[in-house]
Write a structure and sequence with these properties.
Layout: E1 14-15, E2 24-29, E3 32-39, E4 42-47, E5 61-63, E6 66-68, E7 75-77, E8 83-85, E9 94-95, E10 97-100, E11 103-106, E12 126-129, H1 133-145, E13 151-154, H2 167-171, H3 188-191, E14 194-196, E15 201-205, E16 210-213, E17 218-220, E18 223-226, E19 230-232, E20 245-247, H4 251-260, E21 266-270, H5 274-285, E22 289-294, H6 301-304, H7 306-318, E23 322-325, E24 329-332, E25 336-339, E26 344-346, E27 349-352, E28 356-358, H8 361-365, E29 374-375, E30 387-389, E31 394-398, E32 403-405, H9 410-424, E33 436-441, E34 444-450, E35 457-463, E36 468-475, E37 478-485, H10 488-503
Parallel strand pairs: 12-13, 12-18, 13-14, 18-30, 20-27, 21-22, 21-27, 22-23, 29-31
Antiparallel strand pairs: 1-11, 2-3, 3-4, 4-9, 5-6, 6-7, 7-8, 10-11, 15-16, 16-17, 19-28, 24-25, 25-26, 31-32, 33-34, 34-37, 35-36, 36-37
Helix pairs in contact: 1-9
């Protein structure tokens, strides 16, 4: 392997013409890695790694004063280092830069203190039902915008908010431990948020503007956010309630699976959803025998297209994952699974990847408009202007497709939580984020932006088999979604183009 060129010492300074056309130059400040950023006439220096999962920001992209992460599209304000858009919440360090005689030089080894944001004098009380992606993001945004406000998060989970996306990936395969579970270094308790764990909500009393808990306690609200998420679907099969049959949605679910793999030799995953396939990859990475059963002949093809589906399947098969495609399960036994063709697969552990459904019962009982999700406007308001909804349950008017959509993506949920919080604070802006998600299968990662229906026209550039491809999904001549493999910057470019297209309308 050729030696890498040493990174320039930004304290010593670099010539302005050494900064690439991207505006991003990786360098060092003492013992720390940093990125020199040229944004128009402004030169700045910020931390080198995304505070979400450590992506190298020098490989990202500058868009309108924002530095965007190449892996998961987090956005940072380059002037302040502030995490402007999820999935990052913690800021980047920022250093002062002087420009003299055609050279840029960082003037001190220690980063400067971030500027304080303007404080909104909001009292609340604000109540958030749900401690997942949307609920966490909304709580952080509310306290950052209104530090004096009373914010309460009610969650039926036993654990403080955690990064659900790693459960089927790096946590299940053993690369990450419990220390990587928090969504961010930002701690809700440290912000003054009251977090009620293992707490069920009985109903929402809109007339009294109260959230009534299962124990009868009533929490008053000025504004309420429903972020109740989704529930795993359990198939109606004989034996589906067995103790060795597990869903994989929560941290408790994941730990229950991990508790059984020490003695399990044969694992069957029912369903080739992204959750199912990611779980299959993680369990196989531990050396376990894994078979995926799915009624689909081409898993993920409906989302990524046939060529990408073939590439994903090839990676799984090369790693030893077995498949029974085009097959239905008839029954789950104590140690096996019976398929519709009579085949019996040994199964010490059965993992269900059979999809989820939105948890809209609370909203329905409260009399809010529900239609394949809780109906919200562009500011995430429900049919009650004092009640908002975000995340997996929200069905919103998507400006990119011109359709009302509901998606179950982690980053969408977080950004909707941030947008809902802004509206709850009286600073509404139309939610216009481009939907984004990523999926990981062994060492293959895919990025997906936008939202396309099953009837979209598919155009492939490059080679999915070689993990170097862009797959565009169009309707009526307009690109509605793009999937990429090995082309992270292009994914960011396509996202920015979609944003510009909406802004220009």
């Amino acid at each position: 392997m050729a030696d890498q060129q040493p990174k320039p010492d930004l304290l010593a300074g670099v010539a302005l013409d050494a900064i690439p056309a991207s505006g991003l130059l990786a360098g060092t400040i003492g013992t720390r890695d940093a990125v020199l950023v040229r944004d128009g006439d402004a030169i700045r220096a910020v931390g080198a790694k995304c505070t979400h999962l450590g992506a190298p920001l020098a490989q990202g992209m500058l868009v309108g004063g924002e530095l965007r992460c190449p892996w998961h599209h987090a956005c940072f304000d380059v002037a302040s280092g502030r995490a402007a858009k999820a999935p990052a919440f913690d800021p980047l360090p920022v250093w002062p830069v002087a420009v003299e005689d055609g050279r840029a030089r960082v003037t001190q080894a220690e980063p400067v203190a971030p500027p304080r944001a303007a404080i909104v004098l909001a009292e609340g009380p604000f109540v958030i039902v749900g401690g997942g992606a949307a609920g966490f993001a909304a709580a952080v945004a509310l306290k950052e915008g209104a530090p004096r406000a009373r914010v309460t998060v009610v969650s039926d989970d036993d654990h403080a908010p955690y990064d659900r996306t790693i459960l089927t990936k790096d946590y299940l395969d053993g690369k990450f431990g419990d220390d990587r579970l928090p969504i961010a270094q930002t701690d809700l308790a440290g912000l003054g948020v009251e977090l009620r764990l293992s707490t069920a909500v009985a109903r929402v009393d809109r007339a009294r503007r109260e959230v009534v808990l299962a124990d009868g306690e009533a929490l008053p609200y000025a504004k309420l956010l429903l972020a109740t998420g989704a529930e795993p679907i359990r198939p109606d099969l004989p034996g589906a309630d067995g103790d060795h049959v597990r869903v994989l949605r929560s941290l408790a679910d994941c730990r229950a699976v991990l508790a059984r793999i020490g003695t399990a030799k044969e694992i069957v995953v029912l369903g080739a959803s992204f959750i199912g396939l990611e779980a299959a990859a993680s369990l196989r990475s531990r050396g376990l025998s894994v078979t995926v059963v799915s009624p689909e002949e081409a898993p993920t093809a409906a989302v990524f297209g046939q060529a990408a589906s073939d590439a994903i399947m090839a990676v799984h098969r090369a790693k030893g994952v077995a498949f029974r495609l085009g097959r239905e399960v008839q029954a789950i036994g104590a140690g096996d699974v019976t398929l519709d063709d009579g085949e019996r697969l040994p199964a010490d552990l059965v993992v269900l990847g059979t999809g989820v459904f939105p948890r809209t019962a609370l909203a329905e009982a409260a009399g809010l408009a529900v239609d394949d999700g809780v109906v919200v406007d562009a500011h995430l308001r429900t049919s009650d202007p004092d009640v908002f909804a975000a995340g997996d349950i929200a069905r919103w008017p998507d400006p990119h497709t011109g359709r009302d959509i509901r998606v179950e993506h982690w980053v969408v949920a977080q950004r909707q939580g941030q947008a809902a919080a802004a509206a709850m604070l009286g600073r509404p802006e139309a939610f216009a984020a481009v939907p984004f998600f990523w999926s990981k299968h062994f060492d293959l990662s895919l990025r997906y932006i936008g939202h396309a229906g099953r009837d979209a026209e598919v155009a492939v550039d490059g080679s999915p088999a070689d993990r170097d491809a862009t797959i565009a999904f169009s309707r009526g001549g307009r690109v509605e979604a793009v999937a990429t493999m090995g082309r992270d910057v292009e994914s960011l470019e396509r996202e920015a183009a979609m944003e510009r297209a909406v802004a220009a309308r």
